[in-house]
Amino acid sequence: MAIREAGDRTLPTFISLLVVGLLLMTFDVRLEGGGVVASLRNGTQALLSPVQRGAAFVVGPVADIVETLGALASLREENQALRGQLASTQAELAGIQGKLARLEILESLYGLRLDELEVGRTPANVIGRPDGFDLAFIIDKGTSDGIALGQPVIDSFGYVVGTIIDVTGRSAIVVPIMASRNGVAVVVGVQVGNLVSQPGTNDMALDIFEAREPVIEGDEVRTSALSGVFPAGLAVGQVLRSAAPESASLTTVVRPYVQPEHLQVVVVLAWPPTPAIAATTTTLPEETTTIPDEETTVPDGGG
Amino acid sequence: MRRPRPTLAAALMMLVAILIQTTVFARFRAFPPDLVMMTSALLALTSIRREAGIVVAFGGGLVIDLMGSSLLGLRAMAMAAVAFTAVKTRERADIGRIGVAIWVGLLTLLGIVLLLLVGTLFDQRSLLGDNVLSRIALIPLANTVLSLLIAPLVVRVISRGSSYTFA
User: Fold this and answer.
1) Which one of B31, B46, B65 would you mutate to disrupt binding with A, by most A Cβ within 10 Å of its Cβ?
2) Chain B closest CA to A56's CA: distance in Å?
3) Is it the case that residue B161 has pLDDT exceeding 80?
4) Among the partner residues B19, B27, B87, nearest to A10 by beta-carbon distance
């Protein structure tokens, strides 16, 4: 049996640390993650990220093998389902070709010059996660790779993941949207709403304040042009529950496409872009012009 | 005066636990242990200086807070509470390897409940994500199993020359 030490200072030590912990939490809330707290985070990341990168390099292939072996059966099913999806997507693509041709004609008729916005993309590997209760994760790219605070992050399919909340020279921390206290301005059909996280689930609550029409289960939710964080048009998730407007407002549940716990590779978007987009002016021709009828052909079968 | 070597060894052990948890175990989400919490409990149950055990646990939790998005100090407080409870029950926990492993599992459960309670008070809604109940059950279980394997190593490193062992 261990002998009790004379002058036991256990309780005063514990109480002191509790007070320090409470003070730190209060500072973090007041500073909203900035100031001294941000400096501490940066310093810790700068110290630990090289080791995390090395560990991820070593452990990654082994973990991939273990995960693949464990998911072999479901991978076969997933493969079958993806083959079917590919076939229908190819058919859809062929149908769009006709519309693209018509668009080109219209653009040339009216002298439209649409400046296509090229958003810089930086792929990054996920090299670490704090623990099982924090959805945030660490990536292996930082300011030396052009990453900046607040930049949006998507996955390899283009679905919204979250934003960069902390960045050092060689690493950054990403917070997924379902773990963030900030809402995301989104659009469902033609209606604009706000998507916010909910406690106890990764599903998010969608609030539309000037709802004119109902939303249907399965409707796709995309980022809105009103979002200051994400480019417009990025897929976020799907409506889980149909809902009708009540007193011009509507609330429903959205399931994001992304499951942050399973991400291994993400893409950081250089958004917002710094150069201003030149305004385009269009002048309609005085004489009328006959536009060819829209023709779409869908080839038989697929894949 | 006590040599500082056990405290240094404890701090190094905590650092290794942090690195393994945030890299290796981050990939295996099915049965995820909380290595930092387990290490906090195990270190406090050895013959390390009581105050040192609590401070090392607090520091480990602080580093985890700094690597994530949650409030700074949240996990630090939970780890310190786990270490404090372990220190206060050190004598009673000397009941063999299996008994110690079960006690580490229960301390992990205490730490997780504290983390969620205090986190909820500070609006850390991301803590209560999907499958939170299964995680509350699985993490202490994983820690119990792991500590069966790791406890002798911890004792060997920290308690060298001490009569305190997990019999």
Assistant:
1) B65
2) 6
3) no
4) B87
d(CA A22, CA A273): 39
- Asked if the Cβ–Cβ distance from B68 to A131 is below 8 Å, we say yes
In A, residues 10-49, which contact B (CB 8 Å cutoff)?
10, 13-14, 17-18, 20-25, 27-29, 37, 40-41, 44-45, 48
pTM: 0.78
3-state SS of chain A is CCCCCCCCCHHHHHHHHHHHHHHHHHHHHHHCCCHHHHHHHHHHHHHHHHHHHHHHHHHHHHHHHHHHHHCHHHHHHHHHHHHHHHHHHHHHHHHHHHHHHHHHHHHHHHCCCCCCCCCCEEEEEEEECCCCCCCCEEECCCHHHCCCCCCEEEECCCCEEEEEEEECCCCEEEEEHHHCCCCEEEEECCEEEEEEECCCCCCEEEEECCCCCCECCCCEEEECCCCCCCCCCCEEEEECCCECCECCEEEEEEEECCCHHHCCEEEEECCCCCCCCCCCCCCCCCCCCCCCCCCCCCCCCCC
Contacts of B26 in chain A (CB under 8 A): 128-129, 137
Q: What is the ipTM of this complex?
A: 0.87
Residue A58 pLDDT level (bands cut at 50, 70, 90): confident
The closest CB to that of B164, out of A2, A14, A52, belongs to A2
Structure confidence at residue A69 (pLDDT): 74
Structure-token pair, residue A128 = 């670490």
The verdict on a CB contact (< 8 Å) between A198 and B120 is: no
Of B50, B62, B80, which is closest to A5 when you measure between CB atoms? B50
How confident is residue B26, by pLDDT bands cut at 50, 70 and 90? confident
Is the minimum CB–CB distance between A202 and chain B shorter than 8 Å? Answer: yes
Cβ contacts (< 8 Å) between B94 and chain A: which residues?
1-2
Record the tokens describing residue A6, joined without a space: 């004379």
Confirm or reject contact between A61 and chain B (CB < 8 A). Answer: no
Query: Nearest Cβ partner of A14 from B54, B64, B120?
Result: B54
Please state, in angstroms and rounded to a whole number, the distance separating the CA atoms of residues A263 and B27: 10
Is a pLDDT exceeding 50 seen at residue A27?
yes
Residue pair A46/A168 in contact by the 8 Å Cβ criterion? yes
Residue A208, strand partner residues: A250
Residue A218: count of CB within 10 angstroms of its CB? 9
Residue B155: predicted pLDDT? 85
Write the pLDDT tens digit of every residue in A90-139: 877 877 877 787 777 777 766 665 555 578 899 999 998 888 888 899 99
